Amino acid sequence: MNPIDLAAQQLGLNESDKAAALSDYLNNGGANLDPATTAWCAAFVNATLQQSGQQGTGSNMARSFMNWGQPVDQPQRGDLAVFSRGDPNGPYGHVGFFDGYNPDGTIRVLGGNQGDAVSVASYSPNALLGFRRGENALATTPQAQPQNALAEPKPQEWQYTANQLDPAMFRSRRMDMQPIDYMQFRVG
């Protein structure tokens, strides 16, 4: 089974009223942890990959997936999206399955530990570290990023060093990593 399809079957598992089912799912995929006390986005991806016959990283660190599979610039549904969390050069991050782009350019992610549950949430492309594709990925058509995306495309030759960056250019990384609640914009 395709990993993102297996992950989608787990939508709604959470740390409160469905904690036992969530723990069983993680344990069946080789992740023996308590999701109420340990960040579990990477454990969810590893468990999903394992249960779909693929090798994960075996690590509970989201950024470990930056060394998994192959980097891709044109993501397909089901590729992994890896984000920074907090310090962009620090060890913490978030990982989940790429589910597409929203019209505003935010990245839709199906993943675990998003609002303490398996859910679909949207993240800013400003926090994206990269997309990764496993060797066993199904061939589908890559999804192009919308023209009005939040992140301006940068020419390949641009390279920044720490002293060239202007901190005023960047919003808070913490704000970038907050899922967007589209229900608050509902009319009527």
List keywords for this structure.
188 residues, alpha+beta, endopeptidase fold (from Nostoc punctiforme), 4 helices, globular, disordered C terminus
CATH fold call: endopeptidase fold (from Nostoc punctiforme)
Query: In order across it, which strands form the biggest sheet?
Result: 1-6-2-3-4-5
> What is the radius of gyration computed over CA atoms, rounded to a whole number of angstroms?
17 Å
Number of domains: 1
Largest sheet: 6 strands, antiparallel
Proportion of helical residues: 10-25%
- Unreliable stretches, pLDDT < 50, 5 or more residues? 151-178, 182-188
The number of helices is: 4
CATH superfamily: endopeptidase domain like (from Nostoc punctiforme)
Span of the ends, CA to CA: 40 Å
Report on the architecture of this protein:
The chain has 188 residues and is an alpha+beta fold. The chain has a single domain (3-176), classed as endopeptidase fold (from Nostoc punctiforme). 16% of the residues lie in helices and 18% in strands. The protein is built from four helices and six strands, in the order αααββββββα. The chain has helices at residues 3-8, 19-28, 41-51, 173-176; strands at 70-72, 80-84, 93-101, 107-111, 119-123, 128-133. The protein has a six-stranded antiparallel beta sheet. A hairpin with a 7-residue loop joins strand 4 (107-111) and strand 5 (119-123). Helix 2 packs across helix 3.
